[in-house]
Amino acid sequence: MIVNSLFNKLFGILLTENSRKKCERIVLIVAIISFLIHLFLIFLADRRLIHTVDSADLLSSPIAAIYTPFSFILVYEVYLLIFYLPKSFTTYVGKQYEIIVLIIIRRLFKDFSSLSITTDWFKIKYDLQFTYDLIASLVLFYLIYLFQKEGARRFGPVAHISQDEVGIGRFVNIKKTLASLLIPLVLVVSVYSLVNWLWLTLGIHQGSIYAFRNINNVFFEHFFTILIIVDVILLLFSFFHTDEFHKIIRNSGFIISTILIRLSFSVDGLLNTLLILAAIVFGLFIIKIYNKYEKTLALNQTNGSEANG
């Protein structure tokens, strides 16, 4: 009881609507300040007043300064993902998709500084990656629209034999507990990522050249690993309040989708883009098929009620 009370109190502090609004204001202020600081660092690097690594693309152009505030906006999107976790599993998964697309958009801002505008556009690695990301961001934007559209569909009340109010309430409390645990964990990881980014930007560490090539993986590579664990825990606990096949497949499918996103961080180039596309397309098909099940169950219930009447 004491543990439950502690988590409920933590949830009330960190994940209420009022907390969300405060977090939004704080992130916007920090994003603006970080943008100005990044611009100042670019100015210092341009005047050779600070030492940077050869591959520090983030300090080579003012356009690249957008990368830093965008990173804080992404952290806020992570907060929103956790915020919606206890409320809607479909919205929670949709937030995962939004985050990975925003990561691609952020990567575009970074890659602007390393573009080579030549007739050999399709022969240069960085230009090709920019092209992949540009096309993928449009396609993924539309896929997320379709996913959210499917996720918002409702087919009326359906009698679920295996569900009861007590079981559903217990499952919601489990999701609240997980969300409450995720907030401090994400905060620690994000602060570490920021400190590490500053460390590498100033060229202090000897391994900074390698790290800069993988800066888009910072924080989110670990974050999606955490999400996989959370998704598996939710799947296992969902068995306590439902044994419906289509719900189990939906939740399992979303885990597969998250794993595909996580795998995308371990590869570069076209394969990275294809894995992200595959993840969201897979999730979209899962929710479409799930909705067909829900629609059929709703129709059967309606027909059964009319027959009994």
Concise overview:
With 309 residues, the chain is mainly α.
Question: What would your notes on this structure say?
Answer:
With 309 residues, the protein is mainly α. The chain has one domain. The chain has ten helices and no strands.
Low-pLDDT residue spans = 158-163, 207-212
In percent, how helical is the residue content?
A: over 70%
* Tally of helical segments: 10
Biggest sheet character:
none
Structural class based on helices, strands and sheet pairing: mainly alpha
Q: What are the secondary-structure elements, in order, as H or E?
A: HHHHHHHHHH
Nearest-angstrom radius of gyration? 22 Å
DSSP, total strands: 0
Question: Quick one: overall form?
Answer: globular
Number of domains: 1
Q: Overall pLDDT, averaged?
A: 80
Detail the topology: elements first, then pairings.
Layout: H1 2-14, H2 17-46, H3 67-84, H4 89-111, H5 125-151, H6 165-201, H7 208-213, H8 220-238, H9 245-264, H10 269-308
Q: Which features does this protein show?
A:
mainly alpha, about 300 residues, single chain
